[in-house]
Design a protein that fits this description.
Layout lengths: L1 H4 L4 H14 L4 E5 L2 H9 L2 H4 L4 E5 L10 H11 L4 E5 L13 H6 L3 E4 L3 H10 L4 E6 L6 H13 L5 E5 L4 H9 L8 E4 L1 H7 L5 H7 L3 E3 L4 H16 L5 E3 L11 H10 E8 L3 E10 L27 H5 L23 H4 L4 H9 L2
Parallel strand pairs: 1-2, 1-7, 3-4, 3-5, 5-6, 7-8, 8-9
Antiparallel strand pairs: 10-11
Helix pairs in contact: 2-12, 3-16, 7-8, 8-13
């Protein structure tokens, strides 16, 4: 506990805030690209500590939130076939597809099982050889190596009834898409700590060199985030644009080579659609040809109805940093955690969920 307490020291926090106030000479827009940061910023009231000319906006850092409706529709449709078991992380259960949710379809009889690890779905496949088990591959670089390991394990066990529907996303391509979007106009990125532990700080260097936007990789405690904001502010005011690692107790420049090797052994880059951001070149992953037997997309019916966007849901604008949750007319009335219209209110890392949970209390 003492270790955590040291990262929540109020006296130190006040000193960092005073230093930010001292150097923040112009309006700045900083985007956090991690759902855990979004939750921590809301939980500890960090926006309220900052000077009014520093604006924090939430980006596409929640893997559940950026998963488009079309792939959710496909996953649900796969579960309607005979002798199919769907395996998914719990956050996806309540996320609305175009017409229904996994939770609603489970109540209607589809076999949907919540797993805590991709390897759990391999165990389900081994124990149910008469059924096809489809795992919903959702997540960023933090999660993907574990999914790759599950595929390797399934191949080792010679399972012919296990497959994954890959909706994986890569963070740096999305950040580069936002960096060159004049509508968003970001002055600095607070980079994700978990993802960076895998890909390393070098992965962000193209953002600083090509777009001139500073990047700071931050930890998740209040002092981590405040210090990252101070480092970013200092870089911007001094006209610098480089990658700095505030979360140095975990993140290195090279990242985790073993995890990256496993990821690249099983997957290769592909274009991918992000909710709110559209299709981003090279921002997703597909199974390599030698693992095609584990690709559930070969079972997808191309005749699935086109996805229907709920016009009252503004998750797209929120994920792009164009709107805050409280500016959405549905927030807190038509859209609540009990009756969400979109994923940002469902996921524990969603911007709407964070604001509903902490800012409205």
């Amino acid at each position: 506990m003492r270790y955590v307490d040291e990262f929540r020291d109020f006296t130190l926090a006040r000193t960092i805030v005073e230093n930010i106030n001292r150097i923040a000479a112009r309006p700045l827009t900083l985007m956090e690209v991690c759902g855990t940061h979004t939750m921590a910023i809301a939980r500890f009231g960090i926006r309220n500590l900052l000077p009014p000319n520093i604006r924090l906006i939430s980006g596409p850092g929640c893997p559940v939130c950026v998963t488009p409706q079309a792939i959710i529709d496909c996953f649900i449709e796969l579960g309607r076939a005979p002798n199919v078991i769907l395996a998914t992380f719990g956050d996806m259960i309540k996320v609305p597809g175009s017409r229904t949710t996994l939770e609603a379809e489970r109540a209607r009889g589809i076999d949907v099982r919540v797993v805590y690890s991709p390897l759990d779905s391999v165990i389900i496949a081994r124990e149910n050889p008469e059924k096809q088990v489809v795992f919903f591959g959702v997540g960023f670089e933090t999660t993907i190596p574990a999914v790759a390991l599950a595929v390797l394990e399934a191949r080792e066990l010679r399972l012919n009834n296990f497959s994954i529907l890959s909706a994986h996303k890569l963070i740096p391509p999305a950040m580069m898409a936002l960096a060159c979007d004049p509508e968003v106009a970001i002055d600095g990125f607070i980079c994700p700590g978990h993802v960076s532990a895998i890909i390393g700080s070098a992965a962000y260097e193209p953002i600083t060199s090509k777009y001139g936007i500073p990047c700071v990789i931050s930890g998740f405690e209040p002092l981590d985030i405040l210090q990252s904001i101070f480092i970013l502010t200092r870089q911007i005011i001094e006209g610098q644009a480089k990658v700095e690692v505030q979360y140095s107790r975990v993140v290195t420049r090279e990242g985790n080579p073993a995890a990256i090797k496993c990821l690249r052994q099983v997957f290769e880059p592909d274009d991918s659609e992000w909710r709110g951001l559209g299709i981003i070149t090279g921002s997703g992953l597909r199974l390599r040809h030698e693992f095609a037997e584990f690709d559930a997309s070969r079972f997808v019916n191309n005749q699935i109805l086109r996805p229907i966007e709920n016009k009252a849901c503004e998750c797209g604008s929120i994920l792009k940093g164009l709107k805050t949750p409280s500016k959405c007319q549905a927030f807190g009335n038509k859209c609540t955690p009990e009756h969400p219209l979109g994923p940002c209110m469902v996921s524990t890392e969603g911007a709407c969920s964070a604001e509903y949970r902490y800012a409205t209390r």
